[in-house]
Amino acid sequence: LILTAVPRNYDPLLHPFEVPREYTRALNATKLERVFAKPFLGSLDGHRDGVNCMAKHPKSLSTVLSGACDGEVRIWNLTKRQCIRTIQAHEGFVRGMCARFCGTSFFTVGDDKTVKQWKMESPEYGEEEEPIHTILGKTVYTGIDHHWKEAVFATCGQQVDIWDEQRTSPMCSLTWGFDSISSVKFNPIETYLLGSCASDRNIVLYDMRKSTPLKKVILNMRTNALCWNPMEAFVFTAANEDYNLYTFDMRFLESPMMVHMDHVSAVLDVDYSPTGKEFVSASFDKSVRIFPVDKGHSR
What we know:
One of its GO terms (cellular component) is small-subunit processome. WD repeats lie at residues 44-86, 260-299. Pfam families: WD40. This is DCA13 factor. The structure is a single chain. The chain is mainly beta. Helices cover 6% and strands 42% of the residues. The chain contains one helix and 23 strands. It has one helix spanning 18-36; strands at 51-56, 63-68, 72-77, 82-88, 94-99, 105-110, 114-119, 133-136, 143-146, 152-156, 160-164, 172-174, 181-186, 193-198, 202-207, 212-218, 223-228, 235-240, 245-249, 258-260, 267-272, 278-283, 288-292. The strands form six sheets. Strands 1-2-3-4 form a four-stranded antiparallel β-sheet, with no helix packed on it. Strands 5-6-7-8 form a four-stranded antiparallel β-sheet, with no helix packed on it.
């Protein structure tokens, strides 16, 4: 085998298509990068109606709970991508759900004015699928969240109610203004702090020990959801109706630390990654975006 030198002539006149060829190569490389960076893994099918709320299991990464508009709650196994269990929990919408910090049970609230506590394990053979506790409230509850260390949970609706798991009436009711409150969240670090967003454009922070509201910030448009940073106790991010997300430091509420832009419609939900470095947001523009906490645009 004789290797002969191939004569190359680098005269640009003899290579008229160099730029288009390079452009095509670059484009293909970018497309392949996109193909290999597949974020979508699979879908969990089975609900007969729209999914209205979700909850994560605090101990098991592969367990996710979802509640639908027909009152049905499903528990999913993410590794198998299968529904493990289905519960007909409420009449009408399931408005909110949260898991207990130990992971043994979870709570749901619905349009039927009830708060129900359910076992996380499936019932034994021959057992009925029934809640452990049912609390009948006076008004419709729009959201619920559980304390991170104690047997206490909070519901929101016309006001924020703090409940002891053993009692059928709230320990205390917190209110500031008279508008309906759409979501409530306990702080994972400073566990007696909780934040809520109301439909009169307010974000109100409460302290459970003082049983009075702490601070309030009023934005130009309504906040749909908020989420506390799991690593920095005083930082939370609010998903707003004006297409942006605002990250606040609760000690300096005069102006947000960061405004996160990129959505082109109302932002409906937000949740932090466990590292506290990034969060994910879901919007009415049918897109899900991942934002670094310190950047104004999504990655």
